[in-house]
Every structure is written in C-alpha cells, then in structure tokens.
Amino acid sequence: MSEEPADRSTLPLGVLCFIAFRDAEAHVMSRLHAAGFDDLTVAQARVTARIAPDGTRMRDLAEQARVTKQTGTALVDQLERRGYVERVPDPADQRGRVVRLSARGWEVRRLAQEAQAETDAAWQAHLGARRTRALRGALEALREVVDPWA
C-alpha cells in the first residue's frame, strides 16, 4: 500500500509563520515611515529590535539578527549616523562596547510596539480569543526549542 502524496497546496508551517510575520513587519514599517522615521530600513529595524534595554554587544547583536558581524557593524554604523543608536563602553568589560538605543531609537521602539499591538488585536479579531491564545501558546512552546535567545 503506497502513501498518499502530500497535498501540494498545503504550505509548510514555517512558510505560514513567515507570511504572518511579514504582514506584521510591513504594518510596523508603515507606521514608522508615516511617523517620519522613513530613513529606517527593514534590515535596520530588525537589528534595532534586538537591542536589549541596557545595550547589546555587537557580536551578540549580529548573532541574534542572523547576520555576519561585518553586516551587523555596517547596519549599526548606519543606525548611529541616523541617530537611532549609540555605542557606549560595556559596563561589564571596559575594553568592549555595547550598542544601545538613543532617545530617537526608544521612540521607534515605542511606535513599533504600538503597531505590533494593533496587529495582535487585528489577528485576534479575525481568529477569536480562544484560537489566538492557542496560537500564542503553540508559538511560545516552539520558541523553547528554536530560539536560543529566548
């Protein structure tokens, strides 16, 4: 007895997550650009989103953003020139430096969080509270095994 071939119209879970992520990301970027932060690129925003409140070392930032250290450094250079981040001495190691958000960067983070909350609300309006909770629970459980920075 042979197995039935997979339905080619069924998208893999990763692709479905990616489609939803891109929609959420596009909403955030649209809100940021409308608020006057139109010099911020998607790549720069992705790096900015990974900066911890007290700052993040460049090596860790690049690793979390899944870019090379050279690419990460170039993106941070651009962000620094545009006033979104600053490099400061690492309080744990004075030889090192950390990247932290500037006042402009914190404003971007605040607006991005508002836009993310809007997306969450829109998705919940479509899915309903029960399915939204189930989706969040499943994704948080999956994060335990796929996100080393969780």
> CATH top level of the domain at 39-113?
Mainly Alpha
Helix tally equals 6
| Strand runs, count | 3
Low-confidence stretches: none
- The backbone outline, from C-alpha atoms, is globular
User: Whole-number average pLDDT?
Assistant: 93
Pick out its properties:
globular; 150 residues; single chain; 3-stranded antiparallel sheet
Structural notes for this entry:
There is one protein chain. Helix 3 crosses helix 4 (69-81). The chain has a 3-stranded antiparallel beta sheet with strand order 1-3-2. The mean pLDDT is 93. The chain is globular, with a radius of gyration of 19 Å. It has a domain at 39-113: Orthogonal Bundle (Arc Repressor Mutant, subunit A), CATH 1.10.10.10. It has 150 residues and is mainly α. It has helices at residues 13-34, 42-48, 58-65, 69-81, 103-127, 129-146; strands at 56-57, 85-90, 93-101.
Question: What's the helix and strand layout?
Answer:
Layout: H1 13-34, H2 42-48, E1 56-57, H3 58-65, H4 69-81, E2 85-90, E3 93-101, H5 103-127, H6 129-146
Antiparallel strand pairs: 1-3, 2-3
Helix pairs in contact: 1-5, 2-4, 3-4, 5-6
Summarize this, please?
The protein has 150 residues and is mainly alpha-helical.
